[in-house]
Design brief:
15 helices; alpha/beta; globular; single chain; 8-stranded mixed β-sheet; 336 residues
């Protein structure tokens, strides 16, 4: 009942609403070296939500698996012009960018299987860490010179690793969005990720900062999810979005139809949660794009270490993971 009421509130507040346009292009890398926390899902659905709200959005699929390309319905078969040609061969980004068929003002630079070899090929190249930034700058300037509307948001989807592809993604961006699954393992990897961001900030990209943390796969029925959400919000109060994305069958089904959940089932709990999260992100545009980082990488790293240390000294027993319905069969928060 609570979820139904929350969905109804979101429908009323968000129906037909236009989000504020940032003063300049916001480049946001979605990163977490742990797999399965919702990086690609967050990238494509936040991008689609902002595009549906009237903004121009570009997604850079920097993951060799090409899942973001699949969800946005763009071609990424072997031989398709892709981010590999941009990174390794220096091809113009404009030659590879495709428009998403479901959303007119949403574009994607796809990834093909060729990208899996880029890590090795980039090692010996000059300016290997800045190749993506250079290509994006040229693309954005080229749009303006051609009389096209500027891009408002660029989202970079990363692989679950901290290799050269992810380094390029950190160098091209000014902001980092970290999706955190509401489970303990997701917290363990946060310290290493923030330490890497701190190193990038010190040596390659001083403007990089963690601007947003989004809680994903949230199940309000479990004590563990509530505890993780509470700790993240306590340690990162300035950057954690109020909205948490629930576990949702619709979110999982959408990519198999070549769509985001925003077009697959716009009225589902998952779609409404991502739409509200996108609104929060857009409303923070002035603060995040103004140059003052809400939380520096150093502070964030210290907070992550404190959180991990607290868990190590007082681990949550497995028997406390669920509430009173621990013995019941798990149910999704929306229709199956």
């Amino acid at each position: 009942m609570a979820q139904i009421q929350e969905d109804a509130r979101r429908r009323i507040e968000l129906r037909g609403r236009k989000f504020p346009r940032p003063a300049k292009t916001r480049v946001i890398t979605v990163a977490n070296q742990k797999g399965g926390v919702g990086k690609t899902t967050t990238t494509v659905n936040m991008a689609a939500a902002l595009a549906q709200a009237g903004l121009n959005v570009l997604v850079l699929d920097n993951d060799p698996q090409g899942n973001a390309s699949t969800a946005l319905g763009v071609d990424h078969r072997a031989g398709t012009p892709s981010i590999y040609e941009v990174l390794v061969e220096g091809a113009p980004m404009a030659d590879a960018v495709q428009q998403s068929p479901d959303t007119p003002n949403l574009w994607c630079l796809p990834a093909t299987i060729d990208l899996s070899g880029a890590e090795i090929e980039l090692v010996s190249m000059v300016a290997r860490e800045t190749r993506l930034r250079t290509a994006l700058d040229q693309y954005l300037e080229g749009r303006i010179a051609a009389g096209q509307e500027p891009i408002d948001y660029v989202f970079v989807d990363c692989p679950p690793s901290l290799g050269l592809l992810t380094v390029n993604a950190f160098v091209v961006a000014r902001e980092v969005l970290i999706p955190i699954q509401c489970e303990y393992y997701a917290l363990e990897g946060l310290t290493q990720l923030l330490k890497t961001i701190q190193l990038i900030q010190a040596h390659l990209n001083p403007q990089l900062h963690v601007s947003t943390i989004l809680l994903t796969m949230y199940d309000a029925r479990t004590n563990l999810a509530q505890q993780v959400a509470q700790e993240v919000r306590e340690h990162f109060p300035d950057v954690t979005l109020r909205t948490a994305v629930p576990r949702s069958v619709r979110i999982s089904e959408a990519p198999s139809y070549g769509q985001t959940v925003m077009t697959y089932d716009a009225g589902s709990s998952g779609a409404l949660a991502y739409l509200e999260a996108a609104r929060e992100l857009a409303e923070r545009a002035e603060t995040a794009a103004g140059g003052a980082a809400p939380s520096t990488a150093a502070r964030a790293w210290q907070a992550a270490e404190a959180m991990a240390s607290a868990h190590s000294s007082n681990p949550t027993p497995a028997s406390n993971g669920l509430g009173d319905d621990a013995g019941a069969a798990p149910q999704h928060q929306e229709e199956l």
